[in-house]
Amino acid sequence: xxxxxxxxxxxxxxxxxxxxxxxxxxxxxxxxxxxxxxxxxxxxxxxxxxxxxxxxxxxxxxxxxxxxxxxxxxxxxxxxxxxxxxxxxxxxxxxxxxxxxxxxxxxxxxxxxxxxxxxxxxxxxxxxxxxxxxxxxxxxxxxxxxxxxxxxxxxxxxxxxxxxxxxxxxxxxxxxxxxxxxxxxxxxxxxxxxxxxxxxxxxxxxxxxxxxxxxxxxxxxxxxxxxxxxxxxxxxxxxxxxxxxxxxxxxxxxxxxxxxxxxxxxxxxxxxxxxxxxxxxxxxxxxxxxxxxxxxxxxxxxxxxxxxxxxxxxxxxxxxxxxxxxxxxxxxxxxxxxxxxxxxxxxxxxxxxxxxxxxxxxxxxxxxxxxxxxxxxxxxxxxxxxxxxxxxxxxxxxxxxxxxxxxxxxxxxxxxxxxxxxxxxxxxxxxxxxxxxxxxxxxxxxxxxxxxxxxxxxxxxxxxxxxxxxxxxxxxxxxxxxxxxxxxxxxxxxxxxxxxxxxxxxxxxxxxxxxxxxxxxxxxxxxxxxxxxxxxxxxxxxxxxxxxxxxxxxxxxxxxxxxxxxxxxxxxxxxxxxxxxxxxxxxxxxxxxxxxxxxxxxxxxxxxx
Length: 609
Ligand code: ADP
Ligand code: ZN
Known about the structure:
By secondary structure, the protein is an alpha/beta fold.
């Protein structure tokens, strides 16, 4: 068959393959004898032939008997007749005979299988081919390498493309990596002095902060090949060949040196080996191979290994010791300026209507990663298209932040009048408690439009700038603000609802951290009672104290939250008129901005006081 070049032909190509396969199956599947000319004869003829010892071979099937006569080339068949001593007579006649061996499968199953099997093979083949095809056509700037035994795919990507300038913010990381770029440009400068470059650099930070981008940018800036593979690929996709894949990877890298090898999610292979027998052999072998390879090549071969992880604590110490991944570059969540820069970088790709205040957007998106910010820009562009506009407005961006934070507006959720009222009071409660405490961030927006995330409404608080230190009072105020929603429900309706579950969770988490980690309890002073294990992935904490102390911690946490809850209630009771007024407006308009909120708050009410 000729190789197919145009993208259209392959379909016909596949059909021919499937036809061939089906044909093949039918040929193999059919019994040998059935293929030749068979003459049907009476059973009595068959019996005669036995009596005359004229039979050569007999095959007894389920619904017929097939036989040949001596010295004749013809094949006969006859129906099955009740004939109990047939075998004895056949034996006496000296014929070779056998019963057809039937598979244990039921006929339905076997026919089904004979239809399905070729189909499955066809689909699998088609998938494989089309993937190969798209790879060849889509990734024009990537080449595929046939590799040794493992047949793994590796890509040497075009190194033109991503530059440091495409990665906004992250200046410290860039500075750190610039040295490597310099080294790759002019290694002699370093070898002359006797300096050796680290073989491995570990990029550490939360997901979506641009670690992959930075690695690509290093390759882009240095103009060297970029090998990229994900740690989970080693252990998941290539079962049983992780180690050989590592070997192949390094063999190629050394041939292409100087170059960058990027291992994403290195924690998937580099987790601490805990020495228990039930451990993951596959992973350990892969890790050992990686260690061996890293030790195996000389300093200054020009192969630089960059690896990314968001669980640096879980890495095997063998991996992070000097001579391996001994340099660690933190890639943190962007700060306010960083967020603004990232938004601007990504906004270059979209059409904007009028001036857009990226500073405000960046403030609203506190805590968002680079990937989330990129997503926010794209959501805004999608929203503009949805609304039939040709350019993105400030409003699109602000709405898309909410989409990313809280999910889409849920248009068909119908709250009863009473429920809507409860939600309005609940959210106003949060906002009012926040506003009445001097150290709380001003309210940016309150809304009671249900969201797909399940939130029935929310209050968005935005800090003026980034905060790196929080005082005890600020933390307490935060807890009070969390409890403000429930407090409003209690005061106004005298009953409580399930709407505060998320508030409760957050308030407790904060109070707990204050007691166990920030040393802000009366009793425990500066004793660490919890250690954070997963700093970049939500920050799980594990207790590090006795059971007795745990009881004490629980009591302290409870008291802390209770006290702030009481405080919130007091604030709302003192400002009941404002609470009613604000909740009323929110109920009517469903969304009020921070400015409107402050206007009402500072309005006539205060004058009449
Ligand atoms: P990580 O590897 O840290 O999980 P990536 O490098 O894959 O994150 O980033 C995912 C996407 O997020 C990028 O493709 C890019 O669009 C965006 N992004 C993340 N950080 C930045 C940044 N500092 N500047 C510009 N874009 C960023
Ligand atoms: Zn709430």
